[in-house]
Amino acid sequence: MKSATLFSIPVVLHGIGVVAQVTKPANFVPEVKWQIDILNTLDTTKTLTPTDALVWDLDLFHLARHPEIIDFLRGKIPNVNIICYFNAGLAQPSDCDWDSTWQKPEFKGLLGKPYDPEQFTEELWVNIKNQTGIDLIKRRVRLAADLGCDGVDPDNIDGYTNDMNGENGTGWKTTPQDYVNFVTQLATQAHTLKTKRGFSLLIGQKNAPEIARNLTSVLDFAVLEDCKNLRNEASRAFCADFQGYITANKPVFSIEYPTSLRKQGAAQQCNTSGANTAQYTNSCAVDSAPTGGKYSNYKFSEILKIRDGPNDDPAAELNGCTQYCGAGQGKGVVVTAVNEDLDGDVCKSVPK
């Protein structure tokens, strides 16, 4: 998650498309147990852990390369909800639609500046002010439904934070309103699609607290990183901005990144003893009431993950290492088996 200054700005929600009646599985509710691994491909030859997590957030293009993972998960956890993560705001060469879409002459002009000119130079901001750009991202939503996902987790819907104060970090001079309109179009499309289980394709909000109040009634869940601001990377904590989801009986999946969960001196290795006492206590603290608490994270589904390796290695983020809150300090650590050698395999399905 990129550090950003939070700000308040009025945003008007335009009516886009037809509002569909949203249906969802009965177990997709606040406080449901979940797992997220978007760094590497799930290893179906190994024992699956944890088997009591009813929501799994996995990378869409990993599943496009290995669609058998979905059947594997459903075989182990019959009522599992599979959320498919994808980059909604940017495109990059590892994406399954890079060659078939973004490298076509008629679409190259829809790619702007890099996400990070130093570390992530190949990730380029999509022009989400352009209807063609939006329509191309919608293809990723449809691919998720076709593969058998139950929902989508569109990332980087906060490009406007790069375009503040006269800056043009995305290359498109975007505003919060632009991203509200963009995400609303994705939601309208998602809700018209049916999953293979017969429910609406659900869609979530990834961070972007400045526009949360405009999207709570539009989206079906939220995925947050560092909302307690324990790492002091934002101007304030922002868990409270997402209590509206809980009020509407929509889950909020929250990730905190205690540095002690990473095995010292190793980029992606898990400290199986868990986060130290102080970091575990702060990271796992959940308010017992919707108001009057310290963090305003009442009924959030809270987990701890590895964030950075040595020298802030970005490759350590969101791998199979997870510590679950509630079991107590030194407990609740699981390492989901993955096979990183599968990450670059040929895509068997592409957005279209």
UniProtKB/TrEMBL annotation:
- Keyword Transferase appears in the UniProt entry: no
Reactions that this protein is recorded to catalyse: Hydrolysis of terminal, non-reducing alpha-D-galactose residues in alpha-D-galactosides, including galactose oligosaccharides, galactomannans and galactolipids
**Principal EC category:** hydrolase
Pfam families cross-referenced by the UniProt entry:
Glyco_hydro_114 (PF03537)
The residues forming the signal peptide are 1-20
Which parts of the chain span the membrane according to its record? Answer: none
Give the matching Gene3D superfamilies.
Aldolase class I
Q: In this protein, which residues make up the domain named Glycoside-hydrolase family GH114 TIM-barrel?
A: 33-275
Which controlled-vocabulary keywords does the entry list?
A: Hydrolase, Signal
Instruction: List the GO molecular function terms.
Output: alpha-galactosidase activity
Q: Which SUPFAM superfamilies match?
A: (Trans)glycosidases (SSF51445)
What are its E.C. numbers?
A: 3.2.1.22
Key word Membrane present: no
Q: Which InterPro entries match?
A: Aldolase_TIM, GH, GH114_TIM-barrel
Cross-referenced PANTHER family: ALPHA-1,4 POLYGALACTOSAMINIDASE, PUTATIVE (AFU_ORTHOLOGUE AFUA_3G07890)-RELATED, ALPHA-GALACTOSIDASE
Q: What is this protein called?
A: alpha-galactosidase
Q: Which organism is it from?
A: Apodospora peruviana
